[in-house]
């Protein structure tokens, strides 16, 4: 039986790969993102079982737009994949040291909180009353939550999702709903690094893995597909790393 899956960040990168898996399986997919043109192109490519709603999930109003659309479209939701996110600290930041940089540093911290925590929380909390029995929720953290991100704010924002998922799992477990977090390492072919990824940096990140390669969106989509399957019904409140062994390093 076809399920209804809501995938935020579904127009590009990991979210797009995840949505493709659901669409290929015949599920009804609702793509969510801020760029309507990107979502529209992806929805057309995936076929008639895929639709989209453009919304900024960092706001309650944006999340409500998604909830209204999903309820009108499907009535209930079987899968939530909150893949929207990003690092507001990538790129020129100026001097963040000391009190003189506090205003800029605070702006980056708040932006990462909105991009990586509130986009997930707003989506999940809005759709929670409309979850089907035995629904699946997958949130996205990062290897940075374990190793740091250089500036602190991105890693801290991602790590905030860990206890949130555990609390959700406890709240929803008696309905057979599972809640898990995937924490990827370096994943190629996404917009995450913008134009900051150099061949040297790519090589260094690949060398940190045990299998000597970067991850791909398809790797994460396969893991997500399993976590959202009926077979994974006893796996919940887990933070699952997918980084080719890069976390322990060599």
TrEMBL record:
Gene Ontology molecular function: cholate 7-alpha-dehydrogenase (NAD+) activity
Domain Ketoreductase: residue ranges: 3-190
PROSITE patterns the UniProt entry points to: ADH_SHORT
Annotated keywords: NADP, Oxidoreductase
UniProt keyword Translocase, yes or no: no
Superkingdom per UniProt: Bacteria
Gene Ontology CC, one term: cytosol
Similarity comment: Belongs to the short-chain dehydrogenases/reductases (SDR) family.
Protein name: 3-oxoacyl-[acyl-carrier protein] reductase
